[in-house]
Amino acid sequence: QKEVEQDPGPLSVPEGAIVSLNCTYSNSAFQYFMWYRQYSRKGPELLMYTYSSGNKEDGRFTAQVDKSSKYISLFIRDSQPSDSATYLCAMKGRSVKAAGNKLTFGGGTRVLVKP
Amino acid sequence: DGGITQSPKYLFRKEGQNVTLSCEQNLNHDAMYWYRQDPGQGLRLIYYSQIVNDFQKGDIAEGYSVSREKKESFPLTVTSAQKNPTAFYLCASSIVAGLETQYFGPGTRLLVL
């Protein structure tokens, strides 16, 4: 079983809808959680970065972390066709020295926002 | 403009050939990383370097080699020992001090002829 599980999709939604993405993980040592957006044949771009449990909002994006359930979510409000991309979750433990700040990634969810 | 550059964008490798992928950053980041991305598998860590002249193996280092002679540069060589090199290769960097996250370059797609 992978340390981080993410539904590969594709997740297809109409323009203006809310996109809901999630990842589950098994390692309770993970403390820092990230969401990256990756357009086809491009490098991942950091969207959200959160520490421990709780919510964080940035414009149309909201990230939620539930450490008790080992479950993280990303919500995209008022979705646009330009939001069509693959969304990767990533996480890491607290210690910088351990494995050099290593990130563990989910496999990514492909999202299609239809006009 | 600060950022990470990778070259070439596409690279073709012949049987038995070593090829080198370039990664340069002008963000003054101490740490640099190389990942391999295959469809549906997310990113897997090949090598990382926290400081000049030092680097460590990641999860899938076999068949790869790196060097870190300058802070700005972290080239990756895909050797002939890597039997399945076709993939999208991503370089990343981060500030080691503290717990900042990693920023990625645009990637190099390696294909085998």
Describe the protein in words.
The complex is a heterodimer of chains A (115) and B (113). Chain A is an all-beta fold and 115 residues long. Helix content of chain A is 0%, strand content 53%. Chain A has no helices and 11 strands. In chain A, strands 2, 4, 5, 9, 10 and 11 form a 6-stranded mixed beta sheet that branches. In chain A, a hairpin with a 2-residue loop joins β6 and β7 (61-66). Chain A is globular and about 45 Å long. By secondary structure, chain B is an all-beta fold. Chain B is globular, with a radius of gyration of 13 Å. The mean pLDDT of chain B is 91. The A-B interface holds A 4, 6, 8, 32, 34, 36, 41-46, 49, 51, 88, 90, 92, 94, 96, 99-103, 105-108 and B 4, 6, 31, 33, 40-45, 48-50, 56, 58, 88, 90, 94, 96-99, 101-107, 109.
Give short descriptive properties of this protein.
heterodimer, A: 115 residues, mainly beta, 6-stranded mixed sheet, 11 strands, B: 113 residues, 7-stranded mixed sheet, 4-stranded antiparallel sheet
- Amino-to-carboxy terminus distance of chain A: 37 Å
Helix-and-strand structural type of chain B: mainly beta
Number of strands of chain A: 11
Give the low-confidence spans of chain B: none
- Major protein interface: A-B, 28 and 30 residues
Order of helices and strands of chain A: EEEEEEEEEEE
Mean pLDDT, all residues of chain A:
91
- Give the assembly state of these chains: heterodimer
- Taking all Cα atoms into account, the compactness measure Rg of chain A is 14 Å
How is the main sheet of chain A built?
6 strands, mixed
Strand content of chain B: over 45%
Q: How helix-rich are the residues of chain B, as a percent range?
A: under 10%
Q: How would you describe the shape of chain B? A: globular
The portion of residues assigned to helices of chain A is: under 10%
Judged by helices, strands and strand pairing, the structural class of chain A is mainly beta
Stretches of chain A where pLDDT is under 50 for at least 5 consecutive residues are none
Shape of chain A: globular
* Rg over CA atoms of chain B: 13 Å
Mean pLDDT metric of chain B: 91
